[in-house]
Amino acid sequence: xxxxxxxxxxxxxxxxxxxxxxxxxxxxxxxxxxxxxxxxxxxxxxxxxxxxxxxxxxxxxxxxxxxxxxxxxxxxxxxxxxxxxxxxxxxxxxxxxxxxxxxxxxxxxxxxxxxxxxxxxxxxxxxxxxxxxxxxxxxxxxxxxxxxxxxxxxxxxxxxxxxxxxxxxxxxxxxxxxxxxxxxxxxxxx
Amino acid sequence: xxxxxxxxxxxxxxxxxxxxxxxxxxxxxxxxxxxxxxxxxxxxxxxxxxxxxxxxxxxxxxxxxxxxxxxxxxxxxxxxxxxxxxxxxxxxxxxxxxxxxxxxxxxxxxxxxxxxxxxxxxxxxxxxxxxxxxxxxxxxxxxxxxxxxxxxxxxxxxxxxxxxxxxxxxxxxxxxxxxxxxxxxxxxxx
DNA sequence: CGTGGAGTTGAATACGATCAACACCGGTGG
DNA sequence: CCACCGGTGTTGATCGTATTCAACTCCACG
Lengths: 190, 190
Hints:
2 copies of one chain form a homodimer.
Chain A: H1 4-7, H2 15-24, E1 26-30, E2 35-37, E3 46-51, E4 53-59, E5 65-72, E6 76-77, H3 80-84, E7 92-95, E8 99-104, H4 106-115, H5 118-139, H6 142-152, H7 154-159, H8 162-169, H9 173-188
Antiparallel strand pairs in A: 1-8, 2-7, 3-6, 3-8, 4-5, 4-7
Helix pairs in contact in A: 8-9
Chain A binds a DNA duplex through helix 9.
């Protein structure tokens, strides 16, 4: 079972800190489609996904959604900057499957960060992922980016509608559909 | 004068920690063009820029440079993920002006992170900046991205060659030049 | 059964890449 | 002092990739 506490169980965290976390942690069910965070919200929280799948995204001036990340079970998702600094949210977060999450407010996050290097590792890793994505957007064709996505997140491809993957890759659903058509064609040429 | 120690002077850091940092901090001059970090290097460090300007960048399979960030005086720059996790570097870092830097190895960074929330704020802010850039790459035209760059980093525009700004924006120098031409034209139409 | 959302396909269009030519310095060496 | 050179930036023509708009199929779900 995916849970925040089992995640840090192997870490060198004092029992009293664990007890503290256990007391303050809130678990919540989130039905598919439910929006947990909207741009402008002040109560920005982080979520650890126990089951299901969430996503975070921005909406631009032309009302287009741009998906920042997917979070299947075992992942954290948040508008990190606005949780930590208590600013109003920049992103939206919603459930793309019926899900169950554990809620971490900024106090709990501070405990998490202070008690194990794991939190810092996650932040560093997040930066590396974002940087790689920027380089891919700047240098790779859509086809290469799609193939990279398939290899990096094979489990997500199965669960998420194509138009959301297109949104993540930064292209229209039509463009992604055509690339998929080409890939099938070149694969059949054996 | 920009220095790491004056940066944390206002923070609530114990004197002994400051003394410790002061003892271990190394300052170094870096002439324009000198490369501090190459892809594959194992001795990845973070740098606080006292004067001058550095940049970090990736080189893709077609030998094209993609600039990740500029760091004028007062900024940190590093391949964060590889410093913290002691992996081999993914990025290059070099000086685009004669510069002076303070060197922070992973031990010093740990002290920094542990002694003040400032380090965490910087990481969170970095994530926010990277996310915004991804959204800009996915949704905005080159012209809008360039205008945004001008507004966000006016001091950098003055100091950095256009081809590097083009590299940061993810386009060819020719494309940026044409956008600049259009902007001048529409501005002259008064 | 229908109805609407998701995905596919095609035609026309827009935007940036590529390639090439050229202007404009800022050195450097004769 | 000037001639030369390489690097930077500009401009134009052509090409390629993704967007836009539209029509259509296929299901899942009422």
